[in-house]
Amino acid sequence: MKKIPVLILLIMSIFAVNSAQASGEAMFNSLGCSSCHGAGGHSTKPEYPVLAGKDSKYIVKQLEDFRTGVRKSPTMNAMAPMAIGYEEIIADYLAAQ
Length: 97
Ligand code: HEC
What we know:
Elements: H1 3-18, H2 24-30, H3 33-37, H4 56-68, H5 74-79, H6 87-95
The structure holds heme C (HEC).
């Protein structure tokens, strides 16, 4: 069962590489962020935080902290490395929602 999340991450990373002309919106959707956090970060599920309208510096910091393990969340510790190189454009997109 442990292999399934790895496969999902692999598929997501292929999507990410294909988005050559990356916009924050395209990355947020193609990395699968919107599947939990909702379109534009407007989450409708209580277990997933709303990201829309949050300060972009705060979002970048959280992604760094998830990536380095300073902030612990099994889900986000796995997801944050996918956003490497795109943290700022994703955060700017979300802040503007
Ligand atoms: C499988 C569901 C899921 C996916 C996919 C996902 N997240 Fe999350 N995210 C969560 C959960 C759950 C939390 C809350 C973590 C905690 O604090 O325990 C969270 C928290 C966050 C936070 C911190 C919010 C805050 O208010 O502090 C940010 C920023 C974030 N996610 C960004 C992203 C980005 C960017 C992506 C895509 C690369 C992404 N997430 C993909 C479930 C997900």
